[in-house]
Design a protein that fits this description.
This protein has two domains: 182 residues, Rossmann fold (3-Layer(aba) Sandwich), CATH 3.40.50.1400; 153 residues, Rossmann fold, CATH 3.40.50.1400. It is built from twelve helices and eight strands. The chain is of the alpha/beta class. Helix content is 42%, strand content 11%. Strands 2-1-3-4 form a four-stranded parallel sheet, sandwiched between helices. It has a four-stranded parallel sheet with strand order 6-5-7-8, sandwiched between helices. The structure holds coproporphyrin III (HT9) and fe (ii) ion (FE2). The site of fe (ii) ion has 6 residues, from helix 5. Fe (ii) ion binds next to helix 5. Involved in coproporphyrin-dependent heme b biosynthesis. Catalyzes the insertion of ferrous iron into coproporphyrin III to form Fe-coproporphyrin III. It catalyses: Fe-coproporphyrin III + 2 H(+) = coproporphyrin III + Fe(2+). Pfam families: Ferrochelatase.
């Protein structure tokens, strides 16, 4: 995009974040009252083949909390934390927020951004790992929004999705502190023997196997980049907790929130089955560590704090659930660093890498074939994007 084509009142992208002139926080969205629940679930599941029974059940999870998902409030807090962090760091970059499944809708926010003169947008998705649901689907949502703006005759901005941040210290360190706090909250006599159960969203094994770039796909249910990335984070946290407490604890990656038809294989074991197995083996206590999620939204509040915790109570197994990063100032600072390092690379510089674990820094641009959809659709901000 040349300067001449920029609207005359458009703010120029100057300074630290250049070429970016805005950050878009892109999230899932959730209902904010009982009347929102059914239309929200329709948005989420359109064309996704979720059994009706499962939808009724999930609707009940939301109604049990007054029809309000905590996710929008948590994104508002993150937005405020990002604005504060940017201001404190002298970074003059406006931050917007839009969702896939509920207001404020992505398309409306992108339209507002274009009207505000934003031409080059960095996008942070509230999903830290590679997978269709956590990466490509957001890229498809960006493409849909751009297509709508093009139909409306608006000049399209360029959108760049920031790299996966599962192994960024600003994402991992708050979770390490969370595990230490949960251990401290357990009764003293079971603390040293407590197991760690790292949890994430179950996805179909076929989706897991094809997550990440093509060369990281696996054939036999090993789980591709999705499982590998989670295992790497789990190991970093388990090692740090051992270093801090002087006690090595058994740990495992397990899954939650399965939703598809029963005959389709999804990643297992489920957290509740895992708690039962650990109890059977004589584990004295378990800390559930939801590394797959960025905030304490409904999947955490219901599936872990309600369902799995009830299962543990029934077993007489002491459990604690550790915190997600939410609006932790270290996570807000990490987002700033992600924007600035990407901006530097876009300017042709080579900023220092920043990651923990063994997998290295994730790619900036999803390659062709990364996290493929069952039915191919246009996706923005990747090598196969039909947009600039
Ligand atoms: C990998 C992953 C993440 C983590 C990455 C990320 O954060 O993006 C995630 C997050 C979330 N999932 C959420 C809610 C739902 N997910 C559903 C359904 C599904 N999720 C899937 C995967 C993921 N989901 C999949 C493979 C399905 C099956 C349908 C399909 O193939 O698309 C359904 C339908 C009903 C059901 O069956 O559960 C609901 C209501 C909320 C909002 C919570 C709130 O309201 O607080 C959040 C943050
Ligand atoms: Fe991807």
């Amino acid at each position: 995009m040349s300067d001449q084509l920029r609207a005359p009142d458009a703010p120029a992208a100057e300074g630290l974040a250049a070429p970016y002139d805005a950050l878009l926080l892109l999230s899932f969205g959730g209902p904010e009252g009982p009347d929102d629940v059914v239309p929200f679930l329709e948005n989420v599941t359109r064309g996704r083949g979720i059994p009706r029974e499962r939808l009724k059940e999930v609707g009940q999870h939301y109604f049990g909390f007054g029809g309000v998902s905590p996710i929008n409030g948590q994104n508002r807090e993150l937005l405020a934390a990002l604005r504060k962090d940017f201001a404190d760091a002298g970074l003059d970059l406006p931050v917007y927020w839009g969702n896939r499944n509920w207001a404020p809708y992505l398309t409306d926010v992108m339209r507002e951004m274009v009207r505000d003169g934003r031409r080059r947008i960095a996008v942070l998705a509230t999903s830290a790992y590679a997978s269709y649901s956590g990466c490509r689907q957001y890229r498809e949502n960006l493409a849909d929004a751009l297509a709508t703006l093009a139909e409306e005759g608006l000049e399209l901005p360029r959108v760049d999705k920031l790299r996966h941040y599962f192994n960024h210290p600003g994402f991992v360190r708050p979770m390490i502190d969370g595990v230490l706090a949960s251990l401290a909250a357990l009764p003293e006599d079971v603390r040293d023997g407590a197991h760690l159960a790292f949890t994430t969203h179950s996805i179909p094994t076929a989706a897991a196997d094809t997550s990440g770039p093509v060369e990281e796909h696996t054939g036999g249910g090993e789980g591709g980049a999705y499982v590998r990335q989670h295992l790497d984070v789990a190991r970093v946290i388990a090692d740090a907790v051992e270093a801090e407490t002087g006690t090595a604890r058994p740990w495992q990656l397990v899954y939650q929130s399965r939703s598809g038809a029963p005959h389709i294989p999804w990643l297992e074991p489920d957290i509740s089955d895992h708690l039962e197995a650990l109890h059977g083996e004589g584990a004295p206590a378990v800390v559930m560590v939801p590394i797959g999620f960025v905030s304490d939204h409904m999947e955490v509040l219901y599936d872990l704090d309600t369902e799995a915790t009830a299962k543990a109570a029934e077993l007489g197994l002491p459990v604690a659930r550790s915190a997600t990063v939410g609006a932790d100032p270290r996570f807000a600072a990490a987002v700033r660093e992600l924007v600035l390092e990407r901006a530097a690379r876009e300017r042709g510089e080579r900023p220092a890498e920043c990651w923990l674990g063994t997998l290295g820094q994730s790619h900036d641009l999803c390659a062709v074939g990364c996290c493929p959809a069952r039915a191919p659709r246009p996706a923005a901000a990747g090598a196969d994007s039909p947009y600039a």
